[in-house]
Amino acid sequence: MTWAVVAILVIVLVVTVAFLSNRSKQLRPPDASETDVSAKKMLSTDSSGTSRPTSVRSPIAEPSANELPSSQILAAESCKMRPPPAPNREEIAGLRKGLAASRGGFIARLASLFRGKTEIDPGLVSEVEEILLASDVGVKTTQTILERVRTSMGKKDERDPHAVWAALRGEVLQILSLRVDGLNVSSKPTVVLMVGVNGVGKTTTIGKLATQLMARGSKVMLAAGDTFRAAAVAQLEVWGKRVGAEVVKGKEGSDPGAVAFDATKQAIEKGVDVLLIDTAGRLHTKTPLMDEIRKLRKSVSKALDGAPHETLLILDATTGQNALQQAALFHETLELTGLVLTKLDGTAKGGIVVSICDELKLPVRFIGLGERADDLREFHAGAFVEALFGSPDDVAGAEASEGQAPASQAQP
């Protein structure tokens, strides 16, 4: 019996010693080398030299879904679309080709004022003002640009044509640089309401945009909200079949708000990434029609809280200053998130882009430069200005290579 008690005591002693040994290892303070590593991980130095605490994570471990903010999880799940790369030289060359009419129009006329000169003529500012006004830049924006150019330049620079040209180009870039990203697709589904007057190319723009979104991996649905024209529904169905996107439609003459509501609900149920809603063209000066599209917008928000996430106004760039009026009234009614300018390849008066951005502070999101799907381009202010405002000599060279009329013959 005595030997049994001794054996038990020995076992208890061994277990106790092992436990205490393991516990001491856990509580042992780190040595100097470990402390240095930990300090480096726990502190980061910002640009001012101030050390700030940061979180420490194993370089191998990835954050779990529970550790990510819900908005990031939603974006990761819904945004299958790869972001487009930054414009390169080839794309800028494509933009120059698409903007050939404007480059051979008001840009060529501007360039002719500066080309080959070593000093500024006394009447140059008046001539620049005249060209900008004739090119749909608008009175207010023209005055803003010229005033900023005068303010930003010293007396010495005012005599240098190249410095004035660079300042002019810089002011246009500043006005256009309201936004550089494409569609906001952080929600699933992302609901995009497309609006505009008759004949601006809404349905065609929707088809082109759907083509690009599908090519980037997004699941797209189209809604035929123009229930008053059978041709508009048929055109949207053609685009749907072409790109492989489902089209939700109602009976001819049915309530467009009901179609938009139903399409939004279906987009939620079917896990759609982007829902593009077509609407009937309407005169912006007709109050009942604008009230109707306001009701359609409310129907969408009832189907999905926060929708529509984007409300894009389609504008025909060839309409000039009338496009500015359209944008102002639609924005007042619908709180637009951006603009799409179509037919920009068909006008020598591309200044309307500058005018709208300056006066309404609305970003241009896409521009249309042709009939093909890839001729609808995301708008990047830097690439646009680079393509449009080369140096005076660059404009002259492009004008000659594209077979355009000399600037002296270009029409305002």
Summarize the structure in words.
The chain has about 400 residues and is an alpha/beta fold. Among the domains are: about 90-180 and about 405-410, Four Helix Bundle (Hemerythrin (Met), subunit A); about 190-380, Rossmann fold (3-Layer(aba) Sandwich). Helix content is about 50%, strand content about 10%. The protein has 16 helices and 10 strands. The chain has an 8-stranded mixed β-sheet with strand order 5-4-6-3-7-8-9-10, sandwiched between helices. Strands 1-2 form a two-stranded antiparallel ribbon. β7 (about 310-315), α13 and β8 (about 340) form a beta-alpha-beta unit. α5 packs antiparallel against α6, α9 packs parallel to α10 (about 230-245) and α13 (about 320-335) runs parallel beside α14. The radius of gyration is 31 Å and the shape is extended. Mean pLDDT is about 75; it is low at about 25-85, about 395-400 and about 400-410.
